[in-house]
Design a protein that fits this description.
Elements: H1 9-47, H2 57-60, H3 63-72, H4 74-87, H5 91-105, H6 111-129, H7 139-144, E1 152-154, H8 162-169, E2 179-180, H9 189-195, E3 199-200, H10 208-223, E4 228-230
Parallel strand pairs: 1-4, 2-3
Helix pairs in contact: 1-6, 3-5, 4-5, 4-10, 5-10, 6-8
Length: 248
Amino acid sequence: MSDGVAIPAWLLVVMAALAVWALYEHVVVPALRFLVTHPANQVIDELGERLRIGIRPFQRTKRQALIHSLLADRRVQAAAEKYARDKDVTLPAALRRVERYAREIVPAFNAYLYFRIGYWIGRWIARSLYRVRIGYVDSEGIAKVGSDATVVFVMNHRSNMDYVLAAYLAADQAALSYAVGEWARIWPLSALIRAMGAYFVRRNSKDELYRRVLERYIAMATEAGVPQAVFPEGGLTRDGLMREPKLG
């Protein structure tokens, strides 16, 4: 005759928690990753022949890998060392600040969200609010642009709808990357914006370390051929006319 074994309640709780964690780590996360990346990869394959400027490897790189690349950048490292000296803090503390900035800036581009969901939402909004017409297309000039070139779209900034309109109109050419202000850093809007390939900026930040991290991310993306959309005025124009460019 065998005797029962009593197991403390706390041990049962620990075992149950470990089982749930194992299920999450080995089943739920891989399944979610597949559901997110598989449709995106299918879209990229479909768009390979249609887009004038294809999806760059940089855009397909995992966000965490981009953050690590930014942290390892020698200019960012030098800026962190200078910050540590100037502020009299340890280098690890400065690097933690760099990582926080990098996580704030770096997007998480998803081709499926951009070209399937975002495009149709943008198309519906644009056509609902505006009579969208293209007045002129420099087809010859576009044809001369090398497939490996970095294209920068420069435009006047008259409305917050400019993001939607420009992305919609350029959707048969490229996936644009924008700088978006802090006003959009609210969940779930922030997650959607990151998935569309945009990156957040603190417009009036005087923090030299932050500005260096932002500068290096933009440089890395541009060097990798990611199409950029730029509003030289640095803000909305109130009268519809071009304003002086805002530098720095």
